[in-house]
Amino acid sequence: MTESVKGPASYFPSIEKKYGRPIEEWQDLVRSSPLTKHMELVTWLKTEHGMGHGHANAVVAHTLAEGK
User: Fold this and answer.
1) Start-to-end C-alpha separation, the chain
2) Which among 15, 26, 33, 47 counts the fewest CB atoms within 10 Å?
3) How confident is the model at residue 3 (pLDDT cuts 50, 70, 90)?
4) Which residues span the domain enclosing 62?
5) 5 lies in some domain
């Protein structure tokens, strides 16, 4: 029996499919950004990279949670 993926990571397959880049690339972009606040990063992904709000929020939330 396999467990379903929950939380922000549940968006990753659709993000990769829709935007044509692996999640690791998106996370690298977030990590290398001079921005540090969650909503600043979400807005940046939306405006500079054309990502939808839910997808941007998932990438940022998951990436920032790694540092905790």
Assistant:
1) 30
2) 47
3) low
4) 10-66
5) no
Distance of CA 6 to the CA centre of its chain: 14
Higher pLDDT, 55 or 4: 55
The packing angle between helices 23-32 and 53-66, to 10°, is 70
Q: pTM for the full model?
A: 0.89
Burial grade of 35 (CB within 10 A; 0-12, 13-18, 19 or more): middle
Could you report the per-residue pLDDT of 45-54, keeping only the tens digit for each?
999 999 999 9
Assess if residue 35 is contained within a domain: yes
Backbone angles phi, psi at 6, to 5 degrees: -125, 170
Residue 65, both tokens: 């949670």
**CA-based nearest residue to 26, from 13, 3, 67, 6:** 13
Domains identified in the chain, total number: 1
